[in-house]
Amino acid sequence: MPAIKITALRKSFNRVAVLKDVSIEVQKGEMVALIGSSGSGKSTLMRHLSGLTFANRNSPSTVEVLGRKVQQNGRPAKELRATRARIGNVFQQFNLVNRLSVQTNVLIGALSRIPTYRSLLGWFTDEEKLKALEALESVGLRQHALKRASDLSGGQQQRVAIARALMQEAEIILADEPIASLDPESSRQVMETLQRINREMGITVVVTLHQVEYAQKYCSRAIALKEGEIYFDGSIDGLETSLLTDLYGTRISEGT
Ligand code: ADP
Ligand code: MG
User: Fold this and answer.
1) A Pfam family name for this chain (predicted)?
2) Which one of the ligands is nearest to 93 CA?
3) What ipTM describes this predicted complex?
4) Nearest ligand, CA of residue 38?
5) SS in 3 state form for 218-253?
6) Which of 63, 158, 195, 198 sits most deeply, having the most CB atoms within 10 A of its CB?
7) Strand partners, 49
8) For a substitution probing ligand 1, which of 10, 13, 92, 212 has the most ligand atoms within 8 Å of its CB?
9) Which residues are close to ligand 2, an ion, with C-beta < 5 A?
10) Digits of tens for pLDDT over the chain (256 positions)?
11) 204-208 and 31-35 beta bridge pairing
12) How far is CA 209 from the centre of its chain?
């Protein structure tokens, strides 16, 4: 069973086609870079996987994650909620609750799985608190557990978001431009963290990157979008210079 299966995904905004018949399959345990220039449709594609955006109504589009339908024909599937609980999201803008501690931010990952009364009151068991510390250990931040989230650097906050996905017991992590606002050293640490949890825990990772160098360093496969179509899908080594020039034009040497 593939981790992701997208078939004939079509999405338009105001009648402008942003995704044109996109089909993708990602196997469990892969670490895939989704690349392409700004506006090529990467974020829109990612949002379909979490059921934050739906394909065109009555299009033949199907999106499945972890063997469960997320959406079909532009409508949410019955299993959407259950599937979403297994998908960890990491965004460019860290998305932590600044005034809460690092540990509490990680515990938020457990909210979808605990009884409603406890989630409403923010009550966590000792076992859950311990598990949050273990998740922080996995991303190298255990010693920062009691700090306010906003007191951490951008790269550290991004690793807290990854720990939150571990707390959630996510089987797949979707990271949309997780290093776009980070310096090179922080970017390296975030990418290494994603790579480590992919390799050691077998969590499937799909990461959008506009800097190809990071895709080449940390991912084994690349899927490139160009103007809403799959332009390349294959081993990262197949990303030849001519292909990248075509993909990015003169922007290729920017960044890092
Ligand atoms: P990328 O992440 O590759 O930069 P996006 O998926 O964000 O690209 O955007 C692809 C195209 O879709 C862009 O032209 C963008 O302006 C458009 N778009 C994205 N979201 C919306 C929206 N909610 N409403 C209208 N247009 C949108
Ligand atoms: Mg984007």
Assistant:
1) ABC_tran
2) 2
3) 0.98
4) 1
5) HCCEEEEEECCEEEEEEEHHHCCHHHHHHHHHHHHH
6) 158
7) none
8) 13
9) 42-43
10) 899 999 999 999 999 999 999 999 999 999 999 999 999 999 999 999 999 999 999 899 999 999 999 999 999 999 999 999 999 999 998 889 999 999 999 999 998 888 888 888 878 999 999 999 999 999 999 999 999 999 999 999 999 999 999 999 999 999 999 999 999 999 999 999 999 999 999 999 999 998 899 999 999 999 999 999 999 999 999 999 889 998 887 654 444 4
11) parallel
12) 11
Q: Which of 95, 66, 77, 70 is nearest to 4 (CA)?
A: 66
Q: Coil, strand or helix: which one is 1?
A: coil
The dihedral built from the CA positions of residue 185, 190, 193 and 199, taken in this order, carries a sign that is: negative
Token reading at 125: 């068991």
> Is the Cβ–Cβ distance between 191 and 216 less than 8 Å?
no
Q: Ligand 2 centroid to 79 CA: how many Å?
A: 26
